[in-house]
Design brief:
The protein has 151 residues and is an all-alpha fold. The protein is built from 4 helices and no strands. Helix 1 packs antiparallel against helix 4 and helix 3 crosses helix 4. It is elongated and about 100 Å long.
């Protein structure tokens, strides 16, 4: 048999036996490699989907992410910790407008009292409380138990 140079063998590489190949990479046997998909396709396994999700996943629509027992506000997708029952919006606004009350709300009693006292007696504590309130609104301040504030 005399084939032209650089021509694939009869059937080509990866095509069906007997012709129709498209010249795949060298070393792939005719009829194998890049041909038709495997029988049954690439979908879920026979007999239905992939099974039920593990316990604790799912929850009310709109909450997003997995739910854990005892975490009514869901779980932080980054850290995996359950969200606090305290709101970051309430904490931030309290801290901005009442100069430290947001820290009292989140359970940081010492910091809250310090912010209030420095505002009352020094006059510059409002800058600290303002920046701290903005950080709370951004979600950078956890509650006193280390849990992230919910949105």
């Amino acid at each position: 048999m005399n084939y032209p140079p650089n021509a694939p063998p009869p059937g080509g590489y990866g095509g069906p036996p007997g012709g129709g190949g498209y010249g795949g990479p060298p070393g792939v046997p005719p009829g194998g490699g890049y041909g038709a998909p495997p029988p049954g396709g690439y979908g879920p396994p026979p007999g239905g989907g992939y099974g039920a999700p593990p316990p604790g996943f799912g929850g009310p629509p709109g909450m997003g992410g997995p739910m854990m027992a005892g975490s009514p506000y869901g779980v932080d997708p980054i850290t995996g910790m359950p969200f606090s029952d305290k709101s970051k919006v309430v904490a931030g606004l309290l801290n901005i407008f009442l100069f430290g009350a947001g820290r009292l709300y989140t359970g940081h009693i010492g910091i809250g009292i310090a912010q209030i006292l420095t505002t009352v007696f020094c006059g510059v504590g409002y800058i600290w409380a303002l920046i701290d309130g903005i950080m709370m609104l951004m979600g950078k301040v956890p509650d006193s138990q280390g849990r992230p504030l919910h949105g």
